[in-house]
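Feature request disguised as a bug: please show the residue count (1132) next to Phosphoinositide phospholipase C in the output. Example input:
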Amino acid sequence: MAARHRELTEYKKSLIKRDLEMGIVMTVYRQKMERLTVQVIMETRQVAWTRTAEKTDGVLDLFEIREVRPGRNFKDFERFKDNKDKHQDSMCFTIFYGSQFVLNTLSLGGEHLLSYSKCGALLRFGNRALRITCWLRKQMYSVDQTKKNSITLKEVKSLLTLINFKVPGGRFLKEKFAVNHYTPNCMLRFKSNADFRLCVCSCRSTDRPDSSAVLLHDFQRFLLYQQKESWANNLNQVRELMTTFIDDNMRKTNDPEFTVGEFLNFLFSKENSIWDEKFSVLSSLDMNNPLSHYWINSSHNTYLTGDQLRSESSTEAYVRCLRLGCRCIELDCWNGPEEPIIYHGWTRTTKIKFRDVVKAINEHAFVASEYPLVLSIEEHCDLRLQKMMAQIFRDVFQDKLLTDPVELEADQLPSPNQLKGKIILKHKKLNIGECLGRKDLRQGDKQGELFIWDPIDQTWYKHYCVISGNKLYYAEENELEYEFGKVRPQWFPFSHLGESWFHGRMSEGRQTAEKLLQEFCSESVGRDGTFLVRESDTFLTDCTLSFWRGGRVQHCRIRSASEGGHTVFFLTENLHFPSVYALIQHYRENPLRCHDFNLRLSDFVPRPNQHQWFYSNLSRGEAEEYLLRIPRDGAFLIRQREESDSYAITFRCESMVKHCRIHKDGAMYVLGTTSEFESLVELVNYYRKKPLYRKIKLRYPVTPELVERFCTVSASAETVLEPRDLWEKVSLLTDEDNPLGDLCKGVVDISKCNVGKSFSNISMPILKIQNDISGQWNTYKTILNDFRDEVAKDMSDLVVYCQPRSKDKDHNYGYKEVRSFVENKVPSKSKSIEFLRYNRKALSRIYPKGQRVDSSNYDPYPLWICGCHMVSLNFQTPDKFTQLNSALFSLNGGTGYVLQPEIMRLDTYDPQQEMKTVKFTLSVRVLGARHLPKTGRSIASPFVEIELCGQTDDCSKFKTTVCHDNGLNPVWLGPHRQDAEIVMFTVYEPELSFLRFVVFEEDMFSDPNFLAQATYPVKGVRSGYRSVPLKNGYSENLELASLLVYVDIQQVEEAEEELYSSSSQLRKRQAELNDELFLYDTHSGLQRVGPPSRRDDLLQEFSYNEKQLQKINDTCRQKMKEKKINNSKFYS
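Example output, currently without the count:
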């Protein structure tokens, strides 16, 4: 792609850019093919697609574009391959964008479009000043829909809320307007952004951003003595740097000077980053060691986009991981109907074709890195399909596939340089002894889908379930299918019960249905085909379809009958459906034909919503009593409080009842302090879709009828009684061997269940699934026994270096072998030296334990320091450990290969030995931030957590205070507006340590919610006042978001080592004493065991140690202050 990009001349680029700005009519492939105008808006750095000039259908930020993929090789095009789509491969491309693991897509087709896809990268870049201007204009347009480049004082208030800043009061903006010589009634104009930025900047912490100046020689001294920038001795380079941050061309002279605002822009810029970019540069000389000397970026179950039980498998997950720098990916291969498939065996994860995966790997294998890619293959296919796999590998990869050793007489693995552009297979090989695969913790379990009737919203919910022994474990209901627009299980006869078009039983059924349709169609100018479905008035087991045609309401009976032991539904005898839902879906897509009409079902009349969750006269105690009767998280009500214009939302979560205040601010309803809504209905609808507290969404409105229905049911954390004897008893148990781990919602003792009961008129046995699963498992089990240890010669011949080997055979290993360990079965500490010796010669791979069904990750650090090469993580989970992994592999050009430190290859190195020599002290102070992400309706109240990860002391984490209601430009100060506290870390081994910043927001319940993070290897951290560019959970840059910190790195002299060593030992002893004192205070039995004076002795030792620790810390600070005075000549 890059090579093609260079072929474009500057003139051609300008023409393409002009066309894109003017707008081009293209075919957009979504749910249907549409001809829309696609336009690049350079003012805001966005791509928009519109149906008409007045209305924008969709928009994406150029900053969020991750890939522009030419051709038709994406599923959006596959849906329409049989239609009259005339666009050739060279005329189509797909834009992948977003900040989640599963990216959004925009697939386009048009005339001569390949050149436009080449131009995608051109539009994504610009300097910081330009990006801030585009960002401000984008925010301004969001409140100035007319795009007249001017907004009022009232709109400025809305704008500041939008950009994460809470206006302190009504007079605040008026005063700011007055300072900048604006009247409250005037229009603030963008005017090339100068006035607009002045107003926004004046809301920041600097009272007068343009009042002072930083002169050229001042700036040079700052770079030399505070920032330790040796290149700043060259005054011309300093001058050149300053001019890039000066907005006014008239001031770009030989003697430039910064305004305070421009100086702050420099401090927050990427050019002033805390990270030394020289460590991100590829070192070719470091790529000549054997593979066993490297850490290799590795993924576990690469095909999954979510959890390990029921998420979607996707070829795009492979593409995402490869483009994130992964160099070892996993393929779980199973028998398909005709060809191999990939999925997580024995689970409900979806299946994808092996051939499609191999093609996707081939296209993206060397986009992010040209160094070797390892395919870790978990083989479950029979010999016939293994031969097919081998042929697919050869046909698709061709000369990329490594099939022969690089050197025949070698005694060590080849280097990454020798294996450039090669794909290596890790697979069982014939004649090297027994290959023990991973223990499948799921074997012996039976799995399937379980439908449970929810008595509150009168709906059946599908759960993933596992039967182990006589217990049935089931997970949370699967909501993903509905949220992402996938098709419901149409075969299930109850699937219509949760639909908005199904009204259940109506009083005066026909008359009520006609009234609802007439009212709906008169209000919305209803078209023919508008419909609703209700239970039949006459026939107990049937339903009635009522629809609008020709200005009146007509009714059709939906009949039901038994066919082959199952219930079917139909309007006409010749066309049967497994459910009412399937029937309605069919007639929404296909005409309903009768002798006198022919129409499709169109809009539906939703069930009337009486907002019965609102109570005007209910006390807090009564609300709690109501909620305790409803044994479901997500049950809620809203009540009027005694104060005027004040309300409270009361909801149930984690078996507790919580309250949150809602107050009126003018016409707006405000939840907490900053989440604004135009009405209570909007608030409820918003939190039905978004979590209100942790993962809990509003789900069950507590109506008087619901309270009456449950008035005799007591809520209990131990048991839940289900109606109509669906289950005798559901017990929420804790089980160490629970196959669902943290995803488990409940456990059913099958021995106490009555199998074979039917529900209402449905003939399907409720627990028939138990028998079905058993039979299904027996079939799978028999097949596995036939072929699980067999390896096809065709596949074996493709394996060269990564030959799986039993980890139980500790001696006589060869360099071509690889051992795989589950995370908690790695050789013990007593064998760490032997394990290190093995890792210096051959490869090892670590993978998560089977209980991590939620795709959580383990800490890779203890395994890295043992020399493990491929520490496989779930890349789809954006947690601390994948972020540490991204930080490590940001080294060496992001190639996915990082040379292990030389210390780890010394015979004297022992990873389990306690680190005693302090090499550096690292002091950090958080000063402020800019442009923090806004995740919901509320304004962020951020705080920062700083952590030193690696071989560190126990006290290696620090949190700032909370800066309330300001995510735009928060500043962190100490007590009485003094400088914020400096936190000091001791660094034992900078090669093996990481500095991590995490920004959280404190929500209305005082819980922390992740906003952004930045993690760096300590060896590349720079001293001085530095910006920390923030990243999302997947370690991808966030637009403009950054912290400003002060960092001081001091090398520890020999005379100081004893001080820091004593400090470390005292901290550990204090932690031990604290634990022992806690036991004495809380367990009276321990007090009786020892003598009465024991607790007093502990307290005395604790107090003495505290004084000694304070003396040592004071001495360390004094030495640091002396160093700073002696070494710095900075003139302020």
